[in-house]
Specification:
GO terms for molecular function: inward rectifier potassium channel activity. With 464 residues, the chain is an alpha+beta fold. The protein contains 14 helices and 14 strands. The strands form four sheets. Strands 1, 2, 3, 6, 7 and 10 form a six-stranded mixed beta sheet that branches. Helix 4 packs across helix 8, helix 5 crosses helix 7 and helix 5 runs antiparallel to helix 8. The longest helix is centred in the first third of the chain and has 30 residues.
Length: 464
């Protein structure tokens, strides 16, 4: 059972006040309107019974928002009720026409020459089976309508139309419930913590947002709301007052493109709702909740989604920044995003200026090399960065095969080739002690190497 669906518990108002939003635990939980997973932590009470009938006026959205067990039960009762109503109508037609008389039953219709409205109707059970077969076009062949009763023909047309309508309604509800945004937002990730630090000389509130699905999000919109108590000029206290916060990612305003996880920030200036919290202690003392909302459209299905998360004052870290998680892998010639670093933050040195620290820290990270060409910077193996000569060329080519590096001596002769150790079992090691391998002519390097081979190796190394 979901923790936010507290309507399942029949509790009095006194018990609700004593307990938190988790009725089975005495532990106090943080006061927040939006949970970390995006669900609303709001309980609607004191609703009159006549107001609940308003949900039936919008039955489609009510079924979509309801849990699966209630939706399936409603659809099952809907079909069963339709079968039952039409079965009663078919039975009434047969009863009024006299088909249920003892002399007019199907077993004696051939003797008496009676022509019924519907063939093979013995009673209500037969009428119910005929209603079920007619609505779903089963067509067993034992029961069929005749031309004797016009009212039966009209009822057949009505049941066919109503049956197709109910089938379409049920299929639409199930399909819309499967692709609804409640499941589509499960792949959108918000960082567990938010940070406040300087960026380009400006104090910014920053979070990290990412999407793990392969299909991209289009028409992305980001917005944030600060929920806190406000006092008007007249002295009136407005609890849970909402103030909008402007968010942007890089220079893409609030409509970014999610190629990889992005750091979304809000500039804290004089017009910001966070301007009065210039210090961490002031923010911790006053209750504040920052709700972040991401609205987008899924490219594969075209469904509009809205993902939410919130951050309390104790979940905001001052003087921290997010670690870089995007780098360029030259081994496979593509960008990599390391999701293990999604929530990783690191502290900025307090004795150093934030701007200088960011400039020095980001100059050595992989994120600053995203715009560089693939030929610049480090390659997959650092062996190719050093100037190569004849001996180091062979050491670099053999290092990918051997488990250990070969230390060359300052001699002109090539060292003896050491065959790499193979992962053999203890049983094979025991057998090898009895059968020693004869020395092979390939155990040592050749004393001379052709100039053509040397030129070919140098060409391959330079190409890499």
């Amino acid at each position: 059972m979901a923790v936010w669906d507290v309507e399942w518990f029949s509790q009095t108002a006194e018990n609700v006040k004593k307990k938190t939003w988790l009725p089975w635990g005495p532990k106090k939980y943080p006061r927040r309107a939006i949970l970390k997973d995006g669900h609303e932590n709001i309980y609607r009470k004191s609703m009159k019974n006549w107001r609940r009938w308003r949900f039936l006026q919008d039955i489609v959205n009510t079924l979509l928002d309801a849990q699966w067990r209630w939706t399936l039960q409603f659809l099952a009762l809907e079909f069963f009720g339709c079968w039952l109503v039409f079965a009663l109508l078919w039975w009434l037609i047969a009863f009024v026409h006299g088909d249920l008389h003892d002399d007019h039953l199907p077993l004696r219709q051939a003797e008496t020459g009676w022509n019924p409205c519907v063939l093979n109707i013995y009673g209500f059970h037969s009428a119910f089976l005929y209603s079920l077969e007619t609505q779903h076009t089963t067509g067993y062949g034992s029961r069929a309508i005749t031309e004797e009763c016009p009212e039966a023909i009209f009822l057949l047309v009505c049941q066919c139309l109503i049956g197709m309508t109910l089938d379409s309604f049920a299929i639409s509800i199930v399909f819309a419930k499967l692709i609804r945004s409640k499941h589509a937002t499960s792949t959108i990730q918000f960082s567990k913590k938010a940070v406040i630090s300087h960026r380009d000389g400006k104090l910014c509130f920053m979070i990290r947002v990412g999407d793990i699905r392969r299909s991209k999000l289009v028409a992305v919109g980001l917005r944030a709301i600060a929920i806190k108590n406000e006092t008007t000029q007249e002295g009136e206290i407005l609890p849970s007052f909402h103030r909008e916060l402007e968010l942007q990612a890089d220079n893409a305003s609030n409509n970014p493109t999610f190629l990889w996880p992005l750091i979304v920030y809000h500039e804290i200036n004089k017009d910001s709702a966070l301007y009065e919290f210039s210090e961490a202690e002031k923010m911790r003392l006053q209750k504040i909740e920052i709700v972040v909302v991401l609205s987008a459209t899924v490219e594969s299905t075209g469904v509009s989604i809205e993902a939410k998360s919130s951050y309390l004052a104790r979940e905001i870290l001052w003087g921290y920044k997010f670690e870089s998680m995007v780098s360029y892998n030259k081994c496979v010639n593509c960008y990599e995003s390391d999701w293990k670093k999604f929530d990783n933050v690191r502290k900025i040195n307090s004795g150093q200026n934030l701007d200088d620290d960011e400039a020095s820290s980001f100059s050595d990270t992989d994120e600053t090399k995203l715009l560089n060409s693939p030929d610049d910077g480090a390659s997959c193996s650092t062996d190719f960065l050093e100037p190569l000569n004849y001996k180091t060329l062979h050491s670099s080519t053999k290092s990918s095969v051997r488990n250990e590096m070969i230390n060359f001596e300052d001699t002109d002769e090539l060292p003896a080739y050491k065959k790499p150790a193979s992962p053999i079992t203890d049983k094979l090691k025991h057998k090898r002690s009895f059968f020693q391998r004869q020395p092979s002519k390939y155990d040592n390097y050749p004393e001379t190497i052709d100039e053509s081979d040397e030129e070919e190796d140098v060409f391959v190394t330079s190409a890499v």
